[in-house]
Amino acid sequence: MESRASFTAETMALQRAFESHRPPGRRLFDDPYATAFLRPSLRVLAEAARLPLVRHLATGLYDAVAGPGPRASGIVRTKVIDDALAEAMTGDTQCVLLGAGYDTRAHRLAALAGRVVFEVDHPATQARKRAVLGTGPRYVPVDFEHDDLAGKLVESGFDLRKPSVFGWEGVTNYLTADAVDATLAAVHGLGGDLIFTYVDVRALHEPSPFPEARRWVRAVARSGEPWTFGLLPGETGGFLAVRGFDLEKDVSAHDAGGGSRLYRIAIAKRSARAPHQ
After folding, report:
1. CB crowding 76-110: b at 16 or more within 10 Å, else e
2. pLDDT at 27
3. Do both 155 and 220 map to the same domain?
4. In this predicted model, what pLDDT tens digit does every residue of 99-139 receive, in sequence order?
5. Domain of life, per the record (predicted)?
């Protein structure tokens, strides 16, 4: 497991900071902590973006460098998952955030206030988060490629008798197929429903039907965090079914409100059926 915090977690924090600095009536969400996770140069940019003209220039510069798709898709996926998690938090439901990065849902969502929230992520990213936010959720350090996710959660106080919902945002595309399967098996075994993102697998191969794909895929590879996994949307329901989940919703960021058609958000309920694998 590498010792550095995630670069993509920081870029997502910048995207959330930009959105949070829009006027209250126009922004999709407010993450008041996002700026605190940025390196000094990006923090200055994010703070300057509180001014409307500077914000327009800053986001335009970001999109010119990153290309069309990443920022808009990141913002939309955050909003969709925020709403889905809030709707799922009924009764004594537990919330598990897989690969939480620098998102601060445990602190900023009213629906999670007073709830048992577990955050599963790389220990280096979690160390940075603890330094900024202090106490809050139950931090569970896990390497998705190697560690026993279910065992780590139970050790941290996950209650197998209570319902649970798992949020898995911006993670699957960086994993191997085996790690995705292992995580889905763990979530099913723990009795959880699932809200997750994935990329259309056609974005990973050329020629791609998505004009923004080549630039996006090459950019994350240069950052040292390449995309390695995707699904074909028409086959996602079947993929989940054999792993013990019923697909309830599968929408692209574009159709959910903006962003790219290659980036998708899915909601699945745990089935009573045992996984077929």
Report:
1. bbbbbbbebbeebbeeebbbbbbbbbbbbbbbbbe
2. 96
3. yes
4. 999 999 999 999 999 999 999 998 888 998 999 998 789 99
5. Bacteria
Taking each helix axis from N to C end, the angle separating 40-48 and 52-66, rounded to the nearest 10 degrees, works out to 130
C-beta of residue 250 within 8 angstroms of C-beta of residue 266 = yes
Using alpha carbons only, how large is the chain's radius of gyration in Å? 18
Q: Which domain covers residue 122, as residue numbers?
A: 70-270
Does residue 223 lie in a domain region? Answer: yes
Q: Quick check: 77 and 19 in contact, CB under 8 A?
A: no
Inform me whether the pLDDT recorded for 250 exceeds 70: yes
The yes-or-no verdict on residue 3 having pLDDT over 70 is no
- Does residue 277 form part of some domain? no
CA-closest candidate to residue 94, choices 189, 197, 170, 190 = 190
Q: Domain holding 246: CATH number?
A: 3.40.50.150
- Token pair for 238: 């079947």
Output the pLDDT for position 81: 98
The count of structural domains within the chain is 2
Strands (E), 92-131: 94-98, 117-121
In the three-class reduction of DSSP (H, G, I as helix; E, B as strand; rest coil), residue 31 is classed as: coil
Evaluated on CA atoms 217, 223, 228, 231, the torsion sign reads negative
Backbone torsions φ then ψ of 15, nearest 5 degrees: -60, -45
Among 131, 155, 153, smallest CA distance to 144 is for: 153
